[in-house]
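INPUT
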Amino acid sequence: MGNNQLQLCPKSSILNNMADQKFIPNKIKRKKRRLIYLGAALLTGSLVSYAWTQRINITNHYVQKEMERLDVKGSYEIGDFGFRSQTIKNIILGDPNRPDFTAKEVQLEWAIDFGGPKLRKIYAHDIFIRGKYENEKLSFGELDKFSASSSDEAFALPNIYAHITNGKMALSSPYGNVDAKFSGKGNVQQYFVGQISAHLPKGQVNGCTIGSLRLNSQIELQQSAPILNGPIKIASINCATQNILLSNIVLNGQTSLSNDFKSIKVDQKLALGTYKYGDFSGRNVDGRFDGNVSLNGGTSAGDGNIIINGGSFSGQGVQIAMLSANAAVKYSNNDNRWQLVSNGKMAGQNINYQNIAGIASPLQKMGKEGALPVSPLLEKLGGAIEKAGRNFQANSKFSMEIDGNNYQIYAEDFKLSSKSGATLYALHPFSIGAADGKDNISPIRARLYGGGLPEFRIAAQANGGNSWRITADMMPYQHGEASLSLDRISAKSINGKDWTFASQILLSGPLSSGYIKDLRTEIDGTYSQKYGLSALKSCRKIAFKSFIFDALSLNAAQFNICGQGKTPIYNNGNIALNMPALSLSGKMGDAPIKLQSGPVNYSAVSGFALNNIMASIGEDGAKSQINAASLTGQINIDGIYGRMENAAANIVNVPLDMQEIMADWQFKNNILSLNGQMLVKDQSNQARFKPLKATNINAELNDNIFYALMDINEPSTNIKIADVDLMHSLSNADGRALFSLNDIKFDDKFQPELLTDMVLGVVANVNGVVEGNGQINWNSDGVLSNGRFKTDNMSLAAAFGPVEALQGEVIFDDLLNLESRPGQILKLGSVNPGIEALNGLIKYQLKADQTVVIEGGSWPFAGGTLILEPTVWDLSAKRARHLNFTVRGVDAALFLQQFELSNLSATGKFNGNLPMVFDASGGRIVGGQLESDENGGTIAYLGALSYEDLSPYANYAFEMLKSLKYDNLTIGMNGDLAGEIITVVNFTGLKQGDGAKTNFITRQIAKIPIIFKMRIEAEFLQLFSSVRGFYDPEPLTAANMRAILEKQKELEEIEKAKEGEEKNEQSVQQNESGDGL
Amino acid sequence: QRDPAYQSARDSQIIGEKMDGYLGFVSNPSPSVKALVDDLNIKRKAVYTEEAKQGRTSVENAAFAGGCNNIKRTQQGEMYQGPDGSWKVRGASAPLLDSKCVQ
Amino acid sequence: CVQIAAPDKPIVIELNIKIEQSVVLRIDGAVKQAIEENAGIF
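OUTPUT
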């Protein structure tokens, strides 16, 4: 209860009152002293008045003389007069209307001895004395005249027996007027006993007004030392200047004075109704004090014991129900300089500190609402403080020294202990005092523990005025999983109001729904009533041992945090911090994760923002990674949400790079969801497709599984080309991606080169719809992918010429490596390498090593069929391609009819083969060879011939040519399908054809075997339309976007490959003929 | 409305109009110019094939006729193939055409 | 009567026919128009 002392200052008590921290200036002390004088004056007044009456030697012949001698005004009546006793009646001295002394009857008894008559006894009845006390002199009006001595002569009582009944006195003094009644009998010098009761209705002593003081006590004079025994009741003492108010004070006990009135011995029981000093107040104080006071002149000194065994106290929020103390006191006061020494024990029972709730409930509130590791502890602390403050008791031994304005209070075994078990005690005595106006407080070392409060070791050091330096250590304070310990706490204040503090902090506990272990940092901050609490001004290191959050567990990490600009990190309630960098590592499930970030900033208002973040999950070599330029987020009660900008990511085993990711994200009930868009790029260096834009991404990371649905669009036209459904498990890195084409419609505004670079210069003017779907599955063993693509009616232009009504489906067993199943069928409505070939059909298989196996192909042609022989093309090289066509059963007539060769007609069925070579500019027949079958046929040339100078035979031959039968016709062909073809036609076994002019000669000649060689160089339409060697044998179906390369290997390598394939061909042929292509 | 890359290749004399109706490389082209020219030639071939079909002649003839016209349409400073097969820079005057072309 | 001694060897008639049509003239107009219609690629 600090160093203010309880004041008890009943009128006649000796103990001086000691004001609060600052002692009362001298003026008040002199008032105190006068109060004492009044008491003493009253006492002595009543005695003196008695003694005075004794000294008046009223004898019948003296009195008159004496009175005249002393010029005493007064009247009296002499009663019966004996030799040894005389009775005087109705004595009135002084102004009859306001007599100084009246007595109804005074009876004197004398003793005669050799010295002359000596007064032995006085009997006085109904006497009245009027006294006046002024500037420290007591006067009784007329009675003074009888006093022989001057006032300051040594005062001694005569040896007379006195018996007074019904004595009254009216004493007026600057301090107030007293009416007293007294009686009593006995030898004044040896032993006199009587009764005295006095009443001071209103007193005034240096600034204090006393209300209705009543004294009613027995008085004894032992060897002229007066002893008073009996109660003194004072209604109230009110010292306005010192702001002290006491009411219904009752003193009961004995006060005895030395016969020279120099020393007073007091032993009083005290009961104080109420007291009030400043804002302290209390009720029903009862106690005892005993001691001695010695007075001489201006100085007084005293010592004694005070015991307070009860009484309530309340002030500054502290209520003490039962205050008790007992102390020995020694004081001295010479010419206004007070010295007082006191030591003793003090205790307060069931003390309650009212505004404890003001401290406790905010802590509890913060604890309940906060989601910080320290919240459970705040809640517990609030509860413990609230319980501790409700009812505790205080005990302390103390000793006190006051010397004028300087005072020093020593407290020893100071202890506060609460019902809740909380205890605060000082480890060793400490002192509080002030000397020459400067406070000096000794170092205080205390310990706090129990009742659910944290255990503290505190050392407080005050150095003058209100400046304090406190250091403390707090033992780990636990509650549930949370634990906090503060080491080397230091706090400084120069004015008691504004504090700076610092401490090492080690904290573990729940953080939102995770748990952080051993968060360690150094806190420093300031608290001021004006600016509130702010902490963490400068940058500092923060480290934690582990942070577990569901499947995520972070290893130990440390990083620096700094305030933003000059504001401290924690500034009066709001938090704002920057981190130059952040690097964390740990595990998600059992997959290792790493996070690196550039500058991070966070503030409670604007949330957090991380810049250039790199995060990866998975073992080395099987890592999924995400880097983002900026990641921002806001934290609210039910989750965290934010934005990610310019991020790039790739998922292990998935051969795609995701870039320019822009997404809103949200983390709620443990599910991370993202919506946004990104670019998807083919990872392989020969990109199979141009970057595609993924929009309407709807992704979710839930229990370590990543799901994502998205539309895939072509970036420049924003035309949607596919839906993708992706699933990937982060913990074991397996997953799958399903995609279905959105019926891609190629037209003049949407060409395949928008999707892939591989088609530019290979195919153009693509028109048609491609549909299909595909699936990629990956796991730790590897990646499987398959797909099915189809077009019902597509037209395109290729290097070898336009293709129309292309129809076919390709099924890939290994989509990513573009390997299809064998026996894929492609129907070509029409191909026009120069000569239009209709209704072609090819069977092929794409192989992973960029080769294509042509299992065969066929075109109906002029009544027969054109059969493409199986071959293998290596697409990775850019070079001429070889295709070998077998001709079967081509009908010459139909053939020629197809080309409207009006001047030539022929019949006969032809077989043979046409090796073709295709390159960048088109297709050529190289060494084509056709031969008529065994039935031969006819031929007739109706056109004009340009050679006139033919030999007769030649003429004959031409004549024959007009209509000719042949047994065997071979045609050799070479040349550009799209241009000039050189055809060498050989006839053997010629006979006249029907309708030819036959005459004798011709019949003769008819027998002669004629070999007719004809070389026709004609630009007219190519003789055969045949599947020319494609610039690229495999017509690109835009759908399967496969890689097509420009040049094919040198002819020889093909030959080698062909020999290699011979066996394969035989086997293919067998099954070829089998299914009768 | 030519593709800017195509126009700049013509202006910078990397490519020129050949007699056979197709674009040819005067100097070594970059891969992108090469792919661009291949694409244009394919598209030209499709047109020529259509004209050949209509005109009952070979694609080669249609292409040749195209070549004559392409050379006539070259601007000053663009490249074209002269009758002797060598590359010529189109001047202000009419270009040298093959005898078979329509002058 | 005229006896033509049938040669013992087969009569070999070699005939080279070069059919040449100058079509350029015929299709020049159509091709010119086609070029103008597809100016983008010419």
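end of record. Chain A touches chain C at residues 945-947, 953-954, 957-958, 988, 1001, 1004-1005, 1007-1020 (CB under 8 Å).
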